[in-house]
């Protein structure tokens, strides 16, 4: 019974259509396996539950469980067990969203190397997260290599229905970081068959904002379903919305959206949403300190992180080096 529930839960975890159902099945599999004394099966079920558990919003609880899986597997000499790879993958995902992209790349690389070669769905998801982590770390070439792997996996024809939307969106993000905003914007607005992956929709909005189309970015953000507003998604939606509203002249609404984005950062420690928008939102953040916020320390940390990056994109899609900003 534990084995059946694990495999059904794994399937749901890869489709991500019903993540909470995947979590339920995998937790039941873990409990059943532990009661029967099947330690390895229990560990694998616990590891597989990490990614869909993002939907629960209990990110640090899942981090603790992932670390427990890795520690116990290591103690038993099972560090290379493919079934526990997603515990490492989850820690890589969390490191990315907490603003530690270099650590994220290392963890995601380890995860990809441990997964079974025919686990195309999870390998594809790991490749796209790794591409985003490389972009966050300033390694565009690394992101391109991760995207190439993602395209190769897609040739197997066994990817989730939402895969084309995510693959196209991450390709567009790489183009945007290359400075090819016209092509990135074209991809972001290109119709994609099948269901949309929630984060792919966020990426499209990010690119449209960078391309100087804030109103269109707001329209895209409005299509993100309420049931997919997981902590990281909510953070991106509100950060992008804040900057887009500032650019359309709706400053009071911009500050409300920014305060919501800061609330996500304060609660979950997620800073990647602000990195995605870029240093062009620094004026809004500085103004937010003057107008009043419940998250002053978070604002200052976000400003420090944004101004430390180079080059910086302006709201017109141009880039400034650190020397140019100083001048």
Describe this structure in words.
A two-stranded antiparallel sheet has the order 1-2. The longest helix has 18 residues, at 19-36. α3 (39-48) runs antiparallel to α4 (59-75) and α5 runs parallel beside α7. It is built from 18 helices and two strands. It is an all-alpha fold and 327 residues long. It has helices at 2-15, 19-36, 39-48, 59-75, 85-97, 101-114, 120-136, 140-154, 163-178, 181-189, 198-210, 214-221, 231-247, 251-268, 272-277, 282-291, 296-308, 322-326; strands at 312-313, 319-320.
- Low-confidence runs: 310-327
Number of strands: 2
Strand order of the largest sheet: 1-2
Strand content: under 5%
Label the overall shape: globular
Number of helices: 18
Main beta sheet: strand number and arrangement?
2 strands, antiparallel
Structural class: mainly alpha
What is the succession of H and E elements? HHHHHHHHHHHHHHHHHEEH
Based on CA atoms alone, the radius of gyration comes out at 20 Å
Mean pLDDT: 89
Helical residue percent band: over 70%
Distance linking N and C termini: 67 Å
């Amino acid at each position: 019974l534990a084995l059946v529930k694990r495999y059904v839960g794994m399937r749901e975890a890869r489709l991500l259509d019903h993540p909470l159902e995947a979590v339920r099945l995998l937790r039941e599999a873990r409990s059943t396996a532990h009661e029967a004394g099947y330690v390895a099966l229990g560990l694998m079920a616990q590891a597989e539950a990490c990614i869909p558990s993002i939907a629960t919003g209990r990110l640090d609880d899942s981090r603790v469980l992932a670390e427990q899986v890795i520690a116990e597997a290591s103690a038993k000499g099972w560090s290379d067990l493919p079934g526990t790879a997603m515990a490492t993958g989850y820690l890589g995902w969390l490191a990315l969203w907490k603003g530690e992209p270099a650590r994220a790349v290392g963890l995601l690389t380890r995860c990809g190397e441990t997964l079974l070669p025919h686990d195309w769905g999870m390998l594809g998801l790991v490749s796209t997260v790794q591409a985003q982590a490389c972009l966050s770390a300033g390694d565009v070439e690394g992101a391109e290599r991760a995207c190439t792997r993602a395209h190769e996996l897609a040739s197997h024809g066994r990817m989730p229905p939402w895969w084309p939307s995510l693959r196209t969106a991450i390709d567009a993000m790489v183009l945007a970081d290359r400075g090819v905003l016209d092509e990135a914007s074209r991809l972001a607005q290109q119709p994609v068959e099948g269901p949309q992956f929630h984060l792919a929709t966020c990426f499209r909005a990010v690119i449209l904002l960078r391309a100087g189309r804030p109103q269109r970015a707001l329209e895209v953000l409005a299509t993100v379903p309420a049931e997919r507003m997981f902590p990281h998604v909510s953070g991106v939606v509100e950060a992008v919305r804040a900057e887009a509203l500032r650019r359309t002249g709706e400053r009071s609404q911009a500050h409300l959206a920014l305060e919501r984005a800061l609330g996500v950062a304060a609660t979950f420690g997620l800073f990647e949403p602000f990195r995605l928008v870029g240093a062009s939102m620094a004026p809004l953040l500085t103004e937010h300190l003057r107008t009043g916020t419940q998250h002053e320390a978070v604002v200052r940390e976000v400003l420090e992180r944004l101004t430390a990056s180079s080059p910086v994109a302006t709201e017109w899609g141009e880039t400034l080096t650190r020397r140019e900003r100083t001048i």
